Amino acid sequence: MERIILSSPIRPLVRKASYHASKFSWKAFSGLPSSQPPRGWTPTPMVTETVGGGWHTYDIFSRLLKVSIPPPRVSVDTQLTVCQKERIVCLNGQVDETVSASIVAQLLFLEADSPSKPISLYINTPGGSVTAGLAIYDTMTYIASPVTTICVGQAASMGSLLLCGGAKGKRYALPHSSIMVHQPSGGYFGQASDIAIHAKEILRVRVQLNGIYMRHLTPKPPREWSLDDIERLMERDKFMGAEEALELGIVDEILERREKVDDVLGEKKND
After folding, report:
1. 202: which of 7, 113, 130, 219 is 20 to 30 A away, CA to CA?
2. Are strands 127-129 and 88-92 parallel, antiparallel or unpaired?
3. Could you give the C-alpha distances from 107 to 67, 83, 111, 154, 184, in angstroms and in order?
4. Which residues does the annotation mark as catalytic?
């Protein structure tokens, strides 16, 4: 039995941003403006489970991450369904070093728990740091567990790259989600020679990111992507809905409604 409780320790309603402006701001790969307003605090739902006469309490995100252990008297088919419905990681908000470290740690933990089982990454982000996002992407491709990506809300900028970088055939978008792609942006100040160095570096990063998109984009035939096509696509902000993202090959399918457990078990019994 599970109960969802909206409770959490008392915290200040407004916190100052945990990062400061840096002259290395070219690393920002986001649709966000450069200035960041203070972030408001949102209550985190807590889930309480009764297990074996006792109880455990988790925050909702830890509960989604956790793999359920079904009771021993449940049938094998039900056990498989219950165990596979968890292993969920949520990427919400701007992609920065703190969020990246959390996502990477969760992916590594779930792979160590069961390398063969898939992991579901739910994405709702306006983008963020290139290096932080590529840390997540490299971990997704590094681990043995296939990573399913699902766009809920928006996957803009670096979020679209993470959405596109999911396991082949397992990249999804909900019907009213929004996807945006563009080239990296930023700026630098300092000595002329240093400005030239950083200008060269941001161009290198743009080529690297375009290569990742080219590797994962799967447009519907007869359309094929060349590197020049991708560079033209990324030249300016390109917003699209789920249908256009499907045509361009960023996602493989649009999810209308998830299958019910009873229907899945019925199909297994009929087989």
Report:
1. 219
2. unpaired
3. 13, 17, 6, 21, 26
4. 157, 182
For residues 230 and 210, the answer to whether their CB atoms sit within 8 Å is yes
Pairing of β 54-59 and β 88-92: unpaired
What are the phi and psi torsion angles at 50 (to 5°)? -100, 120
Q: What is d(CA 238, CA 90) in angstroms, rounded to the nearest whole number? A: 24
Contacts of 102 (CB under 8 A, 6+ apart): none
Q: What is the DSSP letter of 95?
A: B
Q: Which two tokens stand for residue 211?
A: 């290569």
Residue 147 neighbours by CB distance under 10 Å: 24
User: What global pTM score does this model have?
Assistant: 0.74
Query: Mutual orientation of helices 97-113 and 130-142 as an angle, nearest 10°?
Result: 10
Q: Is 192 within 8 Å of 244 (Cβ atoms)?
A: no
> In sequence order, what are the beta bridge partners of 49?
2, 56
CA dist 182 and 213 (Å) reads 11
- The structure tokens listed for 35 are 């200035």
Query: In this structure, what token pair is assigned to residue 110?
Result: 């779930």
Contact 26, 184 (CB under 8 A): yes
Question: Shortest CA distance to 122 belongs to which of 145, 99, 152?
Answer: 152
**Chain Cα centroid distance, residue 107:** 11
End-to-end CA distance of the chain: 31
Residue 53 sits at φ, ψ, to 5 deg, of: 85, -10
Q: Are strands 178-181 and 147-156 parallel, antiparallel or unpaired?
A: parallel
